[in-house]
Amino acid sequence: MNVRLALVDDHAIIREGLRSLLGQNSFIEIVGEAATGRECLARIEEWRPDVVIMDISMPDINGIEVTRILKNQWPQIKVIIFSMHSTSEYIYRAFQAGTCGYVLKESIGSELINAIKAVQSNKRYLSKSLDDTDLEMNILAAAKSPLTSLSNRERQVLQLVVEGATSASIANRLTLSPKTVETYRSRIMEKLGLHDIPSLVKFAIQHGLTSIEQAN
Prior knowledge:
Helices cover about 50% and strands about 15% of the residues.
């Protein structure tokens, strides 16, 4: 079993560590790396990976949204989320987006290799430390999050807004008009029942759309 693998993480030292660890396995060929979600989407055709190891907290587009786009356009690609986030909200949204595996960064090592083998065999993989009897109930509870009322584009706009991007900047990144961005922003606030940006930022952090670091 030979696996073409791509690494997507905004920390170069993490990518270097993964490349060193995974490169020791003869069945793995690392075909590409990216520091942002946008870079990943731009180069995925060039790489043609079987599996993508994906971080969640990244600038411009978070890993869950990148996963959603990848699975819509390249459904044959298997995505493994490799993250420090262990809450049911993140896990639920990751699997809802189409990820095949969820591995905590604290579990780096043989568990990541096991995850790669599992997803290549069309099995779902979850870090052992997350595999407890309460998790399924917690994930079902997370499914009721107000975030599920937002479209993919609305979630993208929301992430960029809470990271401090202007409407003009968001319009440029997403190839929209500033007026359309303002419309999205108003619609998001209305759907979530929020009335100002600080409340929007708090919501995004609580529901795993962005991190405190990115919102500062």
